[in-house]
Amino acid sequence: MARILVLHGPNLNLLGTRERSIYGNVTLETIDRELVAAAGTDSEIRTFQSNHEGLLIDEIHSARSWADGLLMNPGAFTHYSYAIRDAVAGVALPTVEVHLSNVHSREAFRHRSVIAPVCVGQISGFGWRSYLLGLQGLLSFISENRAE
């Protein structure tokens, strides 16, 4: 059984009401439910959302004692949080970064992720389904690397 920590960064608690033309109508609670359903009985999903960088880092640190991987939408922290980047690198858990919108088709500052270089992959642009695709990729990565 794979154990996955799903981290949602700043402002994602407003999904469903925030800039619907960019982020859609699906709420964070719905995304969390869909992830649990997609994982089925083969995986454990724990979710956490915070608007505070330090709390996200604390969750990343605690995950190293129980999790097999991280699925993370760092929100705006994607572009400048070296602290989150260092936390991900420090715990050495396979991590997939996800984004609802296609960050490469938006403002120039969104084109660069400081976190992606320490992740096994990045998925963006598929709305809330980016999370499902990220989970599928992460679970496959974990399974393949356990078999070695």
Low-confidence stretches: none
- Please identify the structural class as seen in this structure: alpha/beta
Number of H- or I-type helical stretches: 5
Order of helices and strands: EHHEHEHEEH
User: Span between N and C termini?
Assistant: 16 Å
Total number of strands: 5
At CATH level 2, the architecture is 3-Layer(aba) Sandwich
- What value does the average pLDDT take? 92
Q: In the CATH scheme, what's the topology name?
A: Rossmann fold
Portion in beta strands: 15-25%
Considering the protein shown, what is the CATH homologous superfamily?
Dehydroquinase, class II
| Main CATH class | Alpha Beta
Q: Estimate percent helicity.
A: 25-40%
Strand arrangement, major sheet: 2-1-3-4-5
List keywords for this structure.
five-stranded parallel β-sheet, Rossmann fold, 148 residues, single chain
Written description of the protein model:
With 148 residues, the protein is an alpha/beta fold. It has one domain (2-147): Rossmann fold. 38% of the residues lie in helices and 19% in strands. The chain has a five-stranded parallel sheet, sandwiched between helices. Strand 3 (69-73), helix 4 (82-91) and strand 4 (95-99) form a beta-alpha-beta unit. Helix 2 packs parallel to helix 5 and helix 3 packs parallel to helix 4. It starts with a strand and ends with a helix. The mean pLDDT is 92.
